[in-house]
Specification:
216 residues; four-stranded mixed sheet; 25% helix; 25% strand; globular; disordered N terminus
């Protein structure tokens, strides 16, 4: 495994499944990389794991337990001019693509909630096959093209949740609300001015989840 630079890392942040850089494994905190990953997986399990049971597979399951997912990333406050951004999900590694105007426009047609985001707050994207019936711990490496020693920075960490789990979790959340009670707006969307009424009207938990904000 590539070695991380000590000044970067991640720690669980909020119920969105996103993680922000604070103090990471191997940073002198007494936390080993293995303990860090095990703890992170356990935190994820407290989130939507209950939605996995009995929710069934995704409509676009490829028959091998996978579903194709698209993720958008915000690395606008990070220097990526001379770096490759590489997503790691289990044994899979894949390079993120820099977002183009046409890319973002197409994503917004499919997921109108993305219109809430300023263009400059979506910098990279990826389309990748992910588990359709299981949680997957993922992270993004920032790899400098100017070094050859194999080092990399931990840019962010997040959790993949299957589409079916996201929809099941949202249905349960709405069912728990009292008449007239607004649903809670996720921190990362609240930062961009999203309201409970907007989130409810869009009805798109998959679109909400596909945006990964490294700054929250």
């Amino acid at each position: 495994m590539s070695k991380e630079t000590r000044e970067s890392g991640c720690v669980a942040n909020n119920t969105s499944g996103d993680v922000r850089n604070v103090s990471g494994p191997d940073s002198g905190s007494g936390f080993t990389r293995r303990e860090f990953l095990q703890t992170s997986a356990a935190v994820a399990g407290l989130g939507l794991s209950g939605s996995l049971g009995g929710c069934g597979g995704s409509d676009d399951d490829d028959g091998n337990g996978n579903e194709t997912r698209t993720y958008l990333f915000d690395f606008s406050r990070m220097d990526t001019r001379h770096h490759d951004m590489v997503m790691v999900a289990g044994r899979k590694t894949a390079k993120l693509q820099e977002i183009g105007t046409g890319d973002l426009a197409a994503f917004r047609v499919e997921h109108p909630i993305l219109n809430i985001l300023p263009d400059e707050r979506v910098t990279h994207w990826i389309e990748i096959d992910m588990p359709s019936e299981g949680i997957q711990l993922c992270y993004v490496q920032r790899v400098s093209r100017l070094v050859t020693d194999g080092s990399w920075d931990m840019a962010m960490q997040f959790y993949h949740f299957p589409r079916a789990a996201l929809h099941a979790s949202r249905a349960r959340e709405l069912a728990r609300l009292s008449p007239g009670e607004p649903m809670q707006v996720n921190v990362k969307w609240g930062r961009h001015g999203a309201t409970a009424d907007q989130i409810t009207s869009f009805g798109d938990p998959v679109g909400e989840d596909m945006y990964k904000d490294s700054t929250t």
